[in-house]
Each structure stands twice: as structure tokens, then as C-alpha cells.
Design a protein that fits this description.
Strand 3 and strand 4 form a beta hairpin. The strands form five sheets. This protein has a five-stranded antiparallel β-sheet with strand order 1-2-4-3-12. It is built from 23 helices and 23 strands. The radius of gyration is 30 Å and the shape is elongated. It folds into five domains: 212 residues, Sulfite Reductase Hemoprotein,Domain 2 (Sulfite Reductase Hemoprotein, domain 2); 150 residues, 2-Layer Sandwich (Sulfite Reductase Hemoprotein, domain 1), CATH 3.30.413.10; 161 residues, Sulfite Reductase Hemoprotein, domain 1 (2-Layer Sandwich), CATH 3.30.413; 107 residues, no CATH class; 76 residues, Translation Initiation Factor IF3 (2-Layer Sandwich), CATH 3.30.110.
Length: 761
């Protein structure tokens, strides 16, 4: 099987999303609420108003020629003519109209692909070694595990409402081409005592406070891959920081808890998952249609030998070959995608992989079959005829489309290549085989700048009061299952000077390339200082009066500024909804003429999402609020009476109490009152029971008088429990008791009345 299985739950979720989509188009569902629904389906708003991007999950980068044909059709009909390969080996369609997204998602489902979990606080596209199943150094093929784990994660409801995004990958060898050491959960293939399994890394990642993953276990049997991935996810789900999205990734949690406590929590979840059952993860080997390898010895034609030597490699299967196809900036025009897909159809299903470096691999072809593709590939991408490092320039979309982008790295790549192409006859760029240049438009590392030999991430600089685009420079990464090292800070350069800076660094490296095994070795042996010195030449720019060009970013028609930069949509979720309702509630409270119905609705709705409730209509909101906040005693029963009938001025009191409750909420969505109730419930029971008085049937104010009489009989710190009727008794007595300084520890629904627990002052 060469695809993951979309579970019924995803189809059910799509039906709900269709309804949300229709309501949004009709104007009955607000933008913010719709955003929290569309982003987990991989639908993002772009920087250009009213344009959207649809992200598609390709587990392990795997897709068939037939699927590529359908993506080409979608790109032609709905997108900006191109299929974009992401830095997680998935696919994206850009400049999509919001009206078309349901048609796109439905078509994707018809070819066994989905965008569910493509964005937001979800389990993202699961990656794998791009050479999985073909590499000579691999322990075994990890592709089936990426597919099977994708299926299992799509089946779990908690995969789509996490504190932050959650990334998983598989590598087939210690070369760690799948980057297991820098993921939230990373598996590296291993065989121990004849049993297939994996070395397990956790809590790696790039971006704010980048962190190399920690080795969690030296060996996890293949049968327990889902068990550990799910247990780690559940610990993250229950303990991750939901209040601060800038400190919400798993790497922050593990630093907060410490590895020992994190291990303990994971082991607790493992036992819980085992007790629940259904944790096995069956895998199916991918079927390969191999060509005839018994042909006469193949001699590579002279006219394609340069291409062959640069990009074609012999697989571990004798007589079969793979080929790296460099894709300029990850963009494939639909006509080229269609031509390649049609050419590959006769060779079977397992002949294509998209990669995290925004390229693709063709695989499982005989030498004559591979040679027959040369002319198609030359037209397929302009980078095919160039040295390999041109295709190894990775860039995120940056400020061209991304809400968070500062600089425009795609334009920078074009400028770099344009400058270097003029030097082909003078430089031996083929000596730089494997050299990677990575660019991100901001510090968030979507261009994975920390794992480039030479990396850049966008920043803002100012000169004489004018802003201009610039980049931080990093250099010298190492990736290995024995220990990954991120690239080191190596200076700053103005975006305008980036091509000249890259040219000089490469010229310098070419002088040393034969003396070192890697660029990182040279960086560690004095090269870092050299790069830093080179960067100093390219920091300053002329005054705006003398030359305006440095104040424009690449492919921009306006002066550089952060205008249009907004809030990223990756973390769209519950806090967006809470803060939106809170803001609207405060505005309603500040108005001279109060709309009590609106105040009550906003107050009741504001925190429902923290309990997993998404009711939006008035009746549903008020009912859910009473069940989740009043009946559970998070709020006093007094507030329950405000939910009945028409709203009045008491709604202001309700609003103020809800805002106070929100201010006590911690990063795991627990309120201070919840912790108090839990402490009471878990406290050792005293041998002596609490004093008790049944006041049901006793009306106000006599019920309060009798309560005071009972309190007079007990000492300070002792407990009195009373039974009160619903309505006025439960509304008034606890407030009166608290007003006299006693502590109302709990109010619990009991039959038709309420049990109130009071601690005497």
C-alpha cells in the first residue's frame, strides 16, 4: 500500500466543516471562529487579502503518479498554476479562493489524500527519510511506518487540538536524513537481537529557543511505535503551555518538567493506553513494480552524462536507480507535473517522493527507464541542468504570502542564482555537491536555516530612519543520529548584498573544499571567523538619498516595511476565541447603553472552549455554561439564576466573575477553583465526619438563621455541610455565609437541591 488510510472521523469532521464553510460564506459565522475551524484542515489565509493556501499531507513525501495528475488538475483549476512542495515534504496550493476549498478537499479525499492536520495545533505531516526503501546505508525501509502512524494519528481526536503543532519523523539510518534528532518525536531505524525497532528522540525543534532532541530510549520495538508517539503526545496535550503560544512546543515543556518527570508521565500514559487497548499499529510493505534489470549493460550516453553524474544514484536493489530532481523554490507548474506523472505511470506506484528540501526523487527505475526521462526533466525544472547546490537552496514563502514573514527569501534565492550563473565557466560549483543554503523569512525557521551549511533568517534594520530588509547569517550544521549540531551565528548582511556575500563565501570555501570532509569541519577549524569577517563587508547600505534600491526587498514594488505583517495562523485556536470574546465583552461593558443579552451571551460563551464545547447559539451557550461552570461549582450557583429568562443588569456581575475566573486559569486550562476542589476531594478523610444539617424545605431567611445556629455549635476550622433547595436558598445562603467570613468550600448538586460545604472561620 502506498498511501495512508483516511478514517471515518475525518470524513465526519469534513461534513461539519462544510456546514461551517456555508455559514461563513453566508455571513453568519465570524472570521475568527471560522479560522479556528479551517486551519486544522490545512487552509491558511495568505498575506494578500482574500487569498488562501491549502496544505496537503503526504506522509513520508509519498505520492503516486495518479495522485500527482490530480494535484496538477487542482493547480490548474483552482490555484496559481503551481504545486508547491513544502519543507515537510507535503504539497500546497496557493492563491485559492475560499469558495473553492470544499471542492478541493473533497477531490483530495477521492485520491486518498487529506489536509486534516495540515496546519494549526495538530499532528503535522509525518516525514521520512527521502531515500527510504532505496538507500544502501538504511537499516530497513521506514516508509510503511510513516504511513501507518499517519493513519493512527488521524484516528485520534486529540491530534487536532494540541497546545501547539506536533511533528514526527522517521530516519532509516544514522545519517538521519529524516532529521529525527530535531523533531518533537523522531525515530531512527535499528535492529536489536533480530527485532526491528527504533532509537527514539524527543523534544527537538527549530525556531524560538531551538533545541536538539534528547535520546529518550535506545530501542523501541516496531510494535510500540504508536504506543510511544501517542503517550508523548498525550503528555504534551495535558501539560503543554496553552496560554503562551511562544512557549508552547514540546521542547519548552520538557525543559520545564525535566527529563525524569517527563519520563514518568510518559510511562503513566503508556499504561493507560495499554489498558484502553487498540494501540497496535499494523504496517504493510509498499509494493514495488520493478522493471527488467536483465538488460544489456547500460552505457550512459555522453549527452546526459553530466546530469547522470550529478543526480542519478544506484539503489540498494541491484539494477535499479533513483534520481534527485531539483525543483526551483519547490514550485512545479501543472503542465510539467502532468508530463512527469504521465511518463511515470507505466512504471508503477512507488516511483515518486517529495522531500523536505523542496525537491523530489524518482525511484525504482532501471537505467534505460531513467535515461528516458532526461528530456522531460530538463523541461521540468530549470535547476536540473545546474550543479546540485542550486537545487539545494531552500526558502520559505516569506513576506510574499506569509502573515509572519519579514523578508522575501524566494526573491533572494533568485538573485543569488542569477549572480552565480554568470560564473559557471569560472567556478567549479560541482565541487560543492551536497552544499545546502537555507533561507527563512523570519526567525520561525520554516526554511530550516539552522540545518543549512549556510543559513539565513530575516530581520529588520534601519538606516537614517528608513527600514530595510536584512538577514542573520548562520553556518556549519551537522546532522547525525549520534548528535546533531545546529549552524552557528556568523554575522549579519543586508538583503541587498546577499548575492555578493554568498558568492564570496563560496569562493572562499572552494579554496578549502578538498582539505576538509565537510563545510562544518572547516567552520570549526577557523572558517567561522572568516565568514564573520566577510559578512562585515555587507552590513552597511548607502543612504536613502544616494540609492533607494537597498530599501526594497526582492520582487517587491513598495519600499520595505512591516505593513501587512499580521498574526500567524499556525497557532490558531482556543486563545484566539477567548481573547476575541473577552475583548467584545469588555467593549459591551464600557458602552453607556448596556446590551444585557449580549453581555450575558459573551460572558457565558467566553470560556466554553476550555471545556471542549463549541456551542455558538444562545440556547446552546447558556445550557452548556450552566452544565460546565455552575453545576460543577466553578461558579457559585447564584449565577445560575442569571441564565434564565431575559437578561438584566445582573449580567454585568456575571461578566465580571467570568473574567476573574479566566485570570486564574493556568497554562493547562485549569482554574484555581478546580485545583481547590481537587485538593479537597483528594485530601485524607478525617475520621470524624463533618457536621450536617438538612435545611431542604426551609425558606429564606430562616435557612440562613439556622445555618448560623449550626455554625455556632462548632469550632474554628471545623466543617458544616448543609442541604439547601434550588433557587433562592442556594443563591443567597452561600453568599451570606461567605459575607460573614466563613469559607464556602464547595457547592455540589445533590438530587433536586444542593449540598454546601462550609469551613468555619
Amino acid at each position: 500500500m502506498s498511501h495512508y488510510i483516511i478514517p471515518q472521523m475525518v470524513y465526519d469532521d469534513l461534513e461539519v466543516f462544510k456546514k461551517n464553510h456555508a455559514e461563513f460564506l453566508a455571513g453568519t459565522l465570524d472570521d475568527l471562529t471560522f479560522k479556528t475551524m479551517r486551519v486544522p484542515f490545512g487552509v491558511y489565509e495568505q498575506r494578500e487579502a482574500n487569498t488562501f493556501m491549502v496544505r496537503i499531507k503526504l506522509a513520508g513525501g509519498i505520492l503516486t503518479p495518479k495522485q500527482l495528475l490530480t494535484l496538477a488538475d487542482l493547480a490548474e483549476k483552482y490555484a496559481h498554476e503551481a504545486i508547491h512542495i513544502t519543507t515537510r515534504g507535503g504539497a500546497q496550493l496557493h492563491y485559492v479562493k475560499i469558495e473553492d476549498i470544499i471542492d478541493i478537499i473533497t477531490t483530495l479525499h477521492s485520491i486518498d489524500l487529506s489536509g486534516r492536520g495540515g496546519g494549526g495545533n495538530t499532528v503535522r505531516n509525518i516525514m521520512a527519510d527521502p531515500l527510504a526503501g532505496t538507500a544502501k546505508d538504511e537499516i530497513f525501509d521506514v516508509s510503511p511506518y510513516a504511513l501507518a502512524l499517519t493513519t493512527k494519528m488521524l484516528e485520534q481526536k486529540d491530534s487536532f487540538a494540541l497546545p501547539r503543532k506536533f511533528k514526527i519523523t522517521f530516519s532509516g539510518s544514522e545519517a538521519d536524513r529524516g532529521y529525527a534528532t530535531i523533531h518533537d518525536v523522531g525515530f531512527i531505524a535499528k535492529i536489536e537481537n533480530g527485532v526491528k525497532g527504533f532509537k527514539l528522540f524527543v523534544a527537538g525543534g527549530m525556531g524560538a529557543k531551538s533545541r536538539v532532541g534528547s535520546k529518550f530510549l535506545d530501542f523501541v520495538p516496531e510494535s510500540e511505535v504508536f504506543l510511544y508517539a501517542q503517550a508523548i503526545k498525550q503528555v504534551f496535550d495535558q501539560n503543554g503551555n496553552r496560554k503562551n503560544k511562544h512557549a508552547a512546543r514540546l521542547r519548552f515543556l520538557i525543559e520545564e518538567l525535566g527529563m525524569d518527570e517527563f519520563r514518568r508521565l510518559v510511562n503513566v500514559e503508556i499504561e493507560a493506553i495499554k489498558a484502553k487497548g487498540d494501540w497496535e499499529m499494523p504496517t504493510t510493505e509498499i509494493e514495488r513494480t520493478g522493471g527488467d534489470t536483465t538488460h544489456e549493460p547500460f552505457s550512459v550516453p555522453e549527452n546526459i552524462s553530466k546530469w547522470w553524474n550529478r543526480y542519478v544514484y544506484a539503489q540498494k536493489q541491484e539494477g535499479l536507480y533513483g534520481c534527485k530532481v531539483p525543483i526551483h523554490l519547490g514550485d512545479i507548474h501543472f503542465t510539467n507535473a502532468r508530463a512527469l506523472a504521465n511518463a511515470l505511470l507505466p512504471f508503477g506506484e512507488d516511483v515518486l517522493r517529495f522531500t523536505g528540501d523542496q525537491n523530489l526523487y524518482i525511484r525504482n527505475l532501471t537505467a534505460p527507464q531513467m535515461a528516458s526521462l532526461h528530456d522531460i526533466l530538463i523541461n521540468f525544472s530549470k535547476d536540473v541542468s545546474k550543479p546540485t547546490f542550486f537545487g539545494d537552496m531552500v526558502a520559505c514563502t516569506g513576506a510574499a504570502t506569509c502573515q509572519l514573514g519579514i523578508a522575501r527569501p524566494r526573491g533572494a534565492v533568485d538573485a543569488i542564482q542569477k549572480r552565480l550563473e554568470k560564473l559557471f565557466d569560472e567556478r567549479d560549483y560541482d565541487a560543492l555537491q551536497g552544499f545546502k543554503i537555507h533561507l527563512s523569512g523570519c526567525p520561525n525557521s520554516c526554511g530550516k536555516h539552522l540545518i543549512g551549511d549556510l543559513g539565513f533568517f530575516g530581520k529588520v534594520q534601519r538606516n537614517e530612519g528608513y527600514s530595510y530588509p536584512a538577514y542573520n547569517v548562520v553556518a556549519g550544521t551537522r546532522t547525525s543520529g549520534d548528535g546533531t549540531v545546529f549552524a552557528q551565528k556568523a554575522g549579519d548582511v543586508a538583503a541587498f548584498h546577499l548575492p555578493a556575500f554568498v558568492e564570496e563565501v563560496l569562493d572562499t570555501w572552494l579554496l578549502h573544499v578538498k582539505k576538509y570532509e565537510s563545510f562544518a569541519d572547516w567552520i570549526d577549524d577557523g572558517g567561522l571567523k572568516i565568514v564573520e569577517e566577510i559578512s562585515k563587508k555587507y552590513v552597511e547600505i548607502p543612504s536613502f538619498k544616494d540609492d533607494k534600491n537597498p530599501y526594497f526587498d526582492y520582487n517587491a514594488v513598495e519600499l520595505f516595511s512591516l505593513k501587512g505583517r499580521g498574526t500567524g495562523e499556525c497557532s490558531a485556536g482556543m486563545y484566539d476565541l477567548i481573547e476575541a470574546d473577552k475583548k467584545a465583552l469588555k467593549e459591551a461593558l464600557e458602552k453607556e447603553e448596556k446590551d444585557y443579552e449580549l453581555i450575558r451571551l459573551l460572558a457565558a460563551r467566553m470560556l466554553l472552549v476550555t471545556r471542549g464545547e463549541d456551542a455558538r447559539d444562545k440556547a446552546g451557550v447558556l445550557k452548556a455554561f450552566k452544565t460546565l461552570f455552575v453545576d460543577t461549582t466553578l461558579l457559585n450557583a447564584y449565577f445560575g439564576t442569571m441564565l434564565e429568562g431575559d437578561a438584566d443588569e445582573k449580567s454585568i456581575e456575571l461578566a465580571e466573575e467570568v473574567i476573574k475566573l479566566y485570570e486564574t486559569m493556568d497554562n493547562t486550562l485549569k482554574f484555581a477553583k478546580e485545583k481547590e476542589l481537587a485538593a479537597v476531594a483528594n485530601a485524607p478523610k478525617e475520621e470524624k465526619s463533618a457536621h450536617f444539617k438538612d435545611l431542604s424545605g426551609v425558606a429564606c431567611p430562616m435557612n440562613f438563621v439556622k445555618t448560623k445556629m449550626e455554625l455556632a455549635k462548632i469550632g474554628s476550622g471545623e466543617v458544616l455541610e448543609i442541604l439547601l433547595d434550588d433557587g433562592a436558598p442556594i443563591d443567597n445562603v452561600p453568599k451570606s455565609v461567605a459575607g460573614e467570613g466563613h469559607k464556602v468550600e464547595a457547592t455540589t448538586k445533590e438530587g433536586n437541591g444542593w449540598r454546601v460545604r462550609i469551613v468555619k472561620k
